[in-house]
Design goal:
Elements (H helix, E strand, L loop, with lengths): L2 E6 L3 H12 L4 E4 L12 E3 L2 E3 L14 H8 L7 E4 L6 E5 L2 E5 L3 H11 L4 H20 L6 H5 L1 H4 L1 H6 L4 H8 L3 H7 L15 H11 L4 E3 L3 H14 L3 E3 L4 E7 L5 E7 L4 E9 L3 H9 L6 H9 L5 E9 L12 E5 L4 H8 L12 E6 H4 L9 E9 L16 H18 L10 E7 L1 H8 L30 E3 L8 H17 L3 H4 L9 E4 L8 H12 L15
Parallel strand pairs: 1-2, 1-12, 2-9, 5-19, 6-14, 12-18
Antiparallel strand pairs: 3-4, 5-8, 6-7, 10-11, 11-12, 13-16, 13-17, 14-15, 15-16
Helix pairs in contact: 1-11, 1-18, 3-4, 4-10
Length: 560
């Protein structure tokens, strides 16, 4: 065998698995079809300005919290710096003409919402306490292994048992009545991509709980996390290859298939003891393994599997004082004043060319979230709206060289997003230095996700938790990880990689992710630079001295 393990895809899950396996002495090869590693976690640059399409905020980074323990356990915490987004309002909800702000801290959130909606104070406390209880109990299950753990499951997970089979909408309607309050608490449906009527309540609880302590953004964007992980993989003597697409997973055997390696798009064959796919189930099984090697049961399941929504993502560099315009490091969820289920239904319409604005948008200013990235003049924005893949069906079959019709449609959609953005930043249309729009086809090309999906498989009840695709496949020595396995999101996908490595090594997640007092994430306030260390202030000074050097030839022009 050439390697102990080949990992297809370098997203957070694939890299976490590579870190864990290589640390145990395994010779690992990570293969990435894009020219940079990271999958949804990668960063890219347009004329010197950085964008991170899949990393907009991360939670649970306090000492002893799960994401912090993950990065400590992977041995990358010392290489990471995070900025705490505005703790008074890390989420700004723009609902029609109303504004609701969500602060960090569970008790702070209860207080703020209780003051804004005093008639709902009792329901708010009960609902948010239920969310916390369900999420806590959800995270207990993987840790239960002994006899007494299993005996006490009904008591220790009683809230999960009571609410686990219901939709978010059902449980929320039991506790709350005020329409504006309900819409504000539903904005984080955008973090799993399903409306309240379809979203599994436990999954939504896990998402909300992930951010109860607030939102954090990595210095250097998502690419900083990728760099830290790839450095550890290489330090451990393993390899990460980019611009290397996998054509198929090699198998042997007749009755019981066994994965033995991969064939690259250039025809080269590489063999390994184990193969891990960080690609989604559709790409893994149907495209790389092939139907002829799958059971009828799995083929049927794959045909019934639904994938999450896709997106339009507008990348902007603007010459504007966004702080003076009212922006801070908090996210803005801007939506029309409609029931969230109705809003999602309108967003998923096949014809997105109608109407002057999109029903809902997510707005992130990364130069406020990551102050050292700001050059003192030009700010960077990432503006996202969710759509259904069929909105771009008219362009199916196009190759990398896009048609004039596609480019014209893309321009129209970019302008439609900008029109909505004008509500937040009046006059921004005249302040754009460069812009580019990512579409579902962009997602498919760079991330290789089915239908350009942003969260892997759809996070409905029948496709999450015990009903999600498993780490170990029906094919011997073939394993999966990533957003469609265990959980999605930056931290969720990485934890899936750890669990995949644990399965291969015959140990537990906790065996691989141990608390490490020598590892500490450095966290600073995005809104307060008074405690920034000297090295960071120097970095900011150098950055601002170079202002605009990469954009002199692009002023007022669009990036082609």
């Amino acid at each position: 065998m050439d390697y102990d393990a080949i990992i297809i895809g370098s997203g957070a899950g694939g890299l976490a698995a590579a870190v864990c396996l290589s640390r145990e002495g395994k010779k690992v090869l990570v293969l990435e079809q894009h020219d940079v590693p990271g999958g949804w976690c990668h960063s890219f640059y347009l004329n010197g300005y950085r964008f991170s399409p899949g990393v907009h905020y991360i939670g649970l980074l306090g000492k002893g919290e799960s994401t912090s323990e993950l990065y400590e356990g992977l041995g990358i915490a010392n290489d990471l710096v995070f900025f705490r987004m505005n703790p008074k309002a890390y989420e700004h909800c723009w609902i029609g003409d109303e504004r609701v702000h969500l602060p960090a801290g569970l008790e702070e959130l209860k207080t703020a919402l209780g003051e804004r909606f005093p008639h709902e104070k009792k329901g708010i406390n009960k609902y948010l306490t239920t969310v916390k209880n369900v999420s806590t109990q959800l995270h207990l299950i993987p840790k239960m292994s002994g006899f007494w753990d299993n005996v006490t499951i009904p008591f220790r997970t009683r809230h999960l048992g009571k609410y686990g089979l219901f939709s978010l909408k059902k449980v929320m309607d039991w506790h709350l009545k005020d329409p504006l309050l309900i819409k504000a608490l539903n904005v984080q449906c955008g973090d799993h991509g399903l409306p309240p009527g379809k979203a599994s309540f436990p999954l939504h609880c896990a998402v909300m709980d992930h951010y109860f302590s607030g939102g954090f953004y990595p210095m250097g964007g998502g690419g900083a996390i990728v760099k830290a992980m790839t450095n550890v993989v290489k330090k451990n003597g393993s390899e990460v290859r980019t611009s290397t697409g996998v054509k198929r997973i090699l198998t042997e055997g007749t009755k019981k298939k066994k994965a033995i390696g991969v064939e690259l798009e250039n025809g080269e064959k590489i063999y390994a003891e184990t193969v891990i796919s960080n690609a989604d189930p559709n790409r893994t099984y149907l495209e790389m393994v092939g139907k002829e090697n799958l059971s009828d049961k799995l083929i049927k399941r794959l045909s019934n599997t639904k994938y999450s929504c896709t997106s339009l993502m507008l990348f902007l560099t603007i010459d504007m004082d966004v702080k003076a315009a009212g922006l801070d490091s908090g996210n803005i969820w801007m939506m029309q004043d409609k029931d969230t289920d109705v809003l999602f239904e309108e967003m998923m319409q096949a014809d997105i060319s109608t109407g002057e604005e999109f029903p809902g948008m997510f707005i992130s200013c990364t130069t406020l979230k990551d102050p050292p990235s700001f050059d003192g003049k030009y700010h960077v924005l990432e503006v996202v709206t969710y759509i259904h893949r069929n909105a771009f069906d008219q362009f199916n079959g196009e190759d990398q060289k896009r048609s004039p019709e596609y480019l014209a449609f893309k321009e129209r959609m970019a302008n439609k997003i900008i029109k909505s953005l004008e509500r937040v930043l009046p006059g921004v249309s005249d302040k754009i230095i460069q812009k580019d729009l990512g579409t579902p086809m962009t997602n498919e090309y760079y991330i290789n996700s089915t239908d350009g999906s942003v969260y892997g498989t759809e996070k409905s009840f029948k496709q999450t938790g015990p009903f999600a695709y498993k780490t170990k496949s029906e094919i011997d020595k073939l394993y999966l990880c990533g957003a469609s396995i265990i959980s999605h999101g930056v931290a969720g996908a990485a934890y899936s990689g750890v669990q995949t490595a644990a399965k291969i090594l015959g140990c537990t997640q906790d065996d691989l992710i141990q608390p490490d007092e020598t590892q500490n994430i450095r966290i600073y306030d995005a809104e307060d630079q008074s405690d920034y260390p000297e090295w960071m202030l120097k970095k900011m000074e150098v950055k601002r001295a170079r202002v605009g050097s990469g954009l002199k030839h692009l002023l007022k022009d669009e990036v082609e």
